[in-house]
Lipopolysaccharide biosynthesis protein (Clostridium weizhouense), 487 residues
Amino acid sequence: MENQNIKLKVLSSLLWKYMERGGTQGIQFIVQIVLARILIPNDYGIISLIAIFITIANVFVQSGFNTALIQKKDANETDFSSVFYLSLVVASLIYLFLFITAPFIANFYDITQLIPVLRVLSITLFFGAFNSIQNAVVSKRMQFKKLFFSSLGAMILSGTVGIVLAYAGFGVWALVLQQLTNQFSITVILWFTVKWRPTLIFSFERVKGLFSYSWKLLISSLIDTLYMNLRSLIIGKMYNPAMLGFYNRGDQFPQLIVSNINGSIQSVMLPALSSEQSNRQRVKEMVRRSIVTSSFIVFPLMIGLAVIGEPLVKILLTDKWLPCVPFLQVFCLSYALWPIHTANLQAINALGRSDIFLKLEIIKKIMGIIILGVSMFYGVYAIAIGTLISGIISTFINAYPNLKLLNYSYKEQWKDITPSLILSLVMGCVTYSIQWSNMSIYLTLITQICVGTILYIGMAKIFKFECFIYLLNTIKDMIKNKKGATI
């Protein structure tokens, strides 16, 4: 009975997290399509460069304390308030640093416009410092319903602002003010929806205790962020903002889909796994369920998106964005592996083994940098293919510790996801063949989506896939539980 209650709580939290990310990502998707049709690739290239420095700065602002607060079972008001004030101080120092160094960064890339854009967009660091604590509170209490409303409201407001400014001819500043509005709106909404306020208390001892866990995550996150953005830094320097715009636009579509699913799993799984950390067998069952179910969902989405990439870009973004299609197809294959990475790494974090997490990150990044160092001399497309190769190798690395920690081997994991992979490949081949028909581009795209969806679900039902049956039964249980609660 207790396991059933935990299951329903996790699934309910996961549902709200999916809705939060799915709703905001869906609106963001529409907003980005409208903006991409108005703005030029060069505008997106500039924002992409700026985003790299903001993302790296945010790693220092949050410092892994967010995860440490979630992982710590007895975290109280002293812990949360201490981390909050420390985050604000760090955000102030990082902002000052970026403000002063903005001219040097602009000179390095020979783009004068970077100076004011970086200085204005860096203000989001302060919103991030506040939101990270609010998110930790929500995750700790598994109250993801509140994130749904804050994120959705902020995205609608900021999307409207961005589109209006783009039509008014503000160019890259439409994207800047859109992001500022989004972060500010989230902060305001969370202030009224999350029942947490910082108190006038600060404890060096509590911060020190949390830092003993979080510093490894800080280093891991910093290495990962630098590594993930290194390609964009190189493309922006070796080529031009427009090419970086194509590269990142190709990354956006699959990233939008997978980050919704993967991010939801990550947010819910860490507190869920942490609560069961003393029961290794239970953790293994939860990790296995996460890998099997998420792969069943993600594999067909990524393979299907790669297949319909060209007609989709032509229709949604116009022909000026066609150079992004090859990037999109490569990134689809790379992002298909993300749920496997996430489940393994979250299990390691939940068990309190941030030392292993750090070692894995160092190994993966050394390997990835070597691949990048070779691929960068063969062009931008080779750099993209290098990310796929790195991702495949990383699945081995991330799964290895869980053989000892959970008795869940890499071979066993791939055995679990192989049925979904084979079914997705069959669906992709059939869907791809439709492009050789003489139908219009619109009818071709609609036919491919309908045939792919029906074929995948139909085959899963015919062959009685365990994960498909599990999803159906879970949905039925949640509906029944919802009705019971209402009655």
Observations:
- The chain has 20 helices and no strands.
- The chain has a mean pLDDT of 83.
- The longest helix spans residues 2-38.
- Residues 240-487 form one domain.
